[in-house]
């Protein structure tokens, strides 16, 4: 089994689907994150060329990654005037720490939720509610 798959009793996760879930991004955005991480600070056009995607698609992905805190934008000033932006990914170890922390929070919240469940409320919800057939 691939090291990038996590099999649980209910489903199988890929690492990109886990990142998408944790950070609220698209699975396709994850490829852009790893491209920037591999190649270092990059311009949108360079990323688009490397991953063979349209510039506007990469721009949207980078915006999603910035909103999620996975990528930072830096302005580079041109000697004769003007500027351009490069995009830099946060280190993978930092990304892993965020994922682990988020998963711990989810697990703790789920444990608390299960602990607080009341039998009568559960029975009422599932046996008396027409939504569940």
TrEMBL record:
Q: Name one Pfam family in it.
A: TrmB
- Known CDD domains for this protein? HTH_ARSR
Ranges for domain Transcription regulator TrmB N-terminal come to: 22-93
Q: Which Gene3D superfamilies match?
A: Winged helix-like DNA-binding domain superfamily/Winged helix DNA-binding domain
Q: Show the InterPro entries listed in the entry.
A: ArsR-like_HTH, TrmB-like, Tscrpt_reg_TrmB_N, WH-like_DNA-bd_sf, WH_DNA-bd_sf
- Name this polypeptide is given: Transcriptional regulator, TrmB
């Amino acid at each position: 089994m691939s090291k990038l798959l996590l099999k649980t009793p209910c489903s199988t996760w890929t690492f990109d689907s886990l990142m998408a879930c944790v950070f609220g991004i698209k699975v396709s955005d994850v490829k852009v994150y790893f491209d920037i991480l591999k190649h270092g600070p990059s311009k949108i056009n360079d990323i688009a060329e490397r991953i063979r995607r349209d510039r506007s698609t990469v721009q949207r992905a980078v915006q999603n990654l910035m909103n999620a805190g996975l990528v930072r934008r830096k302005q580079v000033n041109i000697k004769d005037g003007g500027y351009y932006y490069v995009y830099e990914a946060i280190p993978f170890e930092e990304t892993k720490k965020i994922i682990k922390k988020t998963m711990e929070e989810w697990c703790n919240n789920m444990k608390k939720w299960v602990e607080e469940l009341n039998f009568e409320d559960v029975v009422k919800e599932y046996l008396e509610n027409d939504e569940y057939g």
